[in-house]
Amino acid sequence: MGSCAAHALTVDTMFLVSDASGNGVVTLTNDFDKTSFIKTSISEINTDSRGEITRNKYTKENIQQWRVMTTNPKLILEPGRAKDVGIRSLCYKVKCESDKDMTFSVVFEPAPYLKKGEEQDNAVQVNYGYSVIYVVPAKASEMKYSITRKGRSLEILNQGNTMLTFVIDRCKSDNVANCRTQERVISGRFKKFELPEYMKSLTLEASIYNHDESYKRQIVLTPEAKI
């Protein structure tokens, strides 16, 4: 039987907000002992009428509708090396909204790099890829949302035009491992999630803010709260 080799590609962030021009940079590092061939792919993320996530993958067939692209769709990365990959706005040539966020999933998928004539060894390659959430924010944030809590259960409906971040942080007061909860909720999204069991009966303080914290609000959530 072949051994199992972990293919360790790392990225410097899993969430990135663009600059004012819609551009950004992700740094990839190859921590494996072999050269990696890395492919990138992009999907545009939206929501449907129920607040569920929809994804439109960018392909050759819809290239005329692309709103962003990477500077290196395919690249080779040697062991121990790092490389910046740019994410560039294409809004100078396609129509883009500025009154609401544009959200994308940028996926980096590594594979062993084989030169011509080389064959993959008998090791089972475990290739760990990453999906980076990339947000081009609305020019002006309009925050509107509703939050419902029932014990451990939380529901957030983001009716605003921009992503919100919801945080409960009790790490200064609670000596437990899961003392912090953070959820990012894109515009139009209805999201349900569970709090840690030990928080079930507690009255909790939470923070809500937008991408640059120009909006920040502290709220108190009782075990049966509706905001």
From TrEMBL:
InterPro entries given in the database record: Ig-like_fold (IPR013783), PapD-like_sf (IPR008962)
Top-level taxon of the source organism: Bacteria
Protein's UniProt name: Uncharacterized protein
Record SUPFAM superfamilies: PapD-like
Organism: Aeromonas sobria
